[in-house]
Amino acid sequence: MPQLLRIGPYSIYFWSNEGDPLEPIHVHISEGRAKSTATKIWITSTGNVILSNNNSQIPERILKKLMRMIAANSDDIINEWINRFGEIKYFC
Fold first, then answer.
1. How much is the average pLDDT of 58-78?
2. pLDDT given at position 1
3. Given CB 3.0 to 4.6 Å as the disulfide criterion, which of 5, 22, 71, 91 pairs with 12?
4. Structural domain includes residue 91
5. Region 6-18: what's the mean pLDDT?
6. Domain count along the chain
7. With 80 as the cut, is the pLDDT of residue 7 above it?
8. Does 90 reside within a domain?
9. pLDDT tens digits for range 35-44
10. Which domain of life does the protein's organism represent (predicted)?
11. Residues 6+ away with beta carbon under 8 Å from 28
12. What is the DSSP letter of 20?
């Protein structure tokens, strides 16, 4: 899983295969190693973020900080998505 950011014990990453057809741009967050049950965050065309699910059960206070970090780095994350998958769609 391509790791994008590491913040404390949390990894923010893409799955190597994000679906066929390709899902809208999003990242996964888990504590430690990548997991299939990870929290999922959508990234909008304006660089904002939307919580899809909190399957990793990250405490709300920490999740809000992580989401702010994702939004602050959304330009780099979007560029990495395009480089990795060759196309991009947005959730909204």
1. 97
2. 63
3. 5
4. no
5. 88
6. 1
7. yes
8. no
9. 888 999 999 9
10. Bacteria
11. 1, 12, 13, 14, 15, 34, 38, 39, 40, 41
12. T
Say if 92 falls within a structural domain.
no
- Are 11 and 3 in contact by the 8 Å Cβ rule? The answer is yes
Q: Is the peptide bond before 2 cis (omega within 30 degrees of 0)?
A: no
**If 0-12 CB within 10 Å is exposed, 13-18 middle and 19+ buried, where does residue 53 land?**
exposed
- Closest by CA position to 12, among listed 74, 60, 61, 59: 74
Helix residue ranges, H only, 1-92: 60-72, 74-85
The CA–CA distances, whole Å, from 22 to 33, 64, 79 equal 23, 26, 16
Q: Which domain holds residue 72?
A: 3-85
pTM of the model: 0.91
Distance of CA 71 to the CA centre of its chain: 10
Q: Which residue has the higher pLDDT, 19 or 88?
A: 88
